[in-house]
Write a structure and sequence with these properties.
Order of helices and strands: HEEHEEEE
Number of domains: 1
Radius of gyration: 15 Å
CATH architecture: Roll
Strand content: 35-45%
Number of helices: 2
Number of strands: 6
Largest sheet: 6 strands, antiparallel
CATH superfamily: Hotdog Thioesterase
Strand order of the largest sheet: 1-2-4-5-6-3
Helix content: 10-25%
């Protein structure tokens, strides 16, 4: 089932993001879209706070954002790029299809702001592949290539 593209202007706030993605608290991991060139690239922000539910157990006394959730945030941003580049994708669920070349370079802690930069590598039918970086204070925290298939 597809719906029409929401009329969104940059920067796109969390309400606009929720108009595109089905994710909700506590699994919506994108706070704002600050730049986008449809079909090409996108830049988003994730503010990491101590109130995130995963910090209770990862790790008590030494809070670290799990790398898999950084990859998930990147995947959500890639899905937004796909949806806002191709209206046929809006309203469809995106499923992880693969992760390649994932590297974790820096620990992400409460108080950090993740700047998520993704570029479209391939968009063929219902499958996309993006290359992404997550940066904190201009330093590379995580990089990966991600693939998703839209239902």
């Amino acid at each position: 089932m597809t719906t029409s593209a929401p009329d969104l202007q940059l920067p796109i706030d969390v309400k606009g993001i929720m108009a595109v993605l089905p994710h909700r608290y506590p699994f919506l991991l994108v706070d704002r879209i600050v730049e986008m060139e449809p079909g090409e690239n996108i830049t988003a922000i994730k503010n990491v706070t101590i109130n995130e539910p995963f910090f209770q157990g990862h790790f008590p006394g030494e809070p670290v954002m799990p790398g898999v959730l950084i990859l998930e945030a990147m995947a959500q941003v890639g899905s937004i790029l796909a949806c806002l580049s191709d209206q046929e994708m809006i309203g469809r669920l995106a499923y992880f299809a693969g992760v390649d070349k994932a590297r974790f370079r820096r620990v992400v802690r409460p108080g950090d702001q993740l700047v998520l930069k993704l570029a479209m590598l391939k968009h063929k039918g219902k499958v996309i592949k993006v290359a992404g970086q997550a940066l904190v204070d201009g330093q590379l925290a995580t990089e990966a290539e991600l693939m998703a298939s839209f239902a």
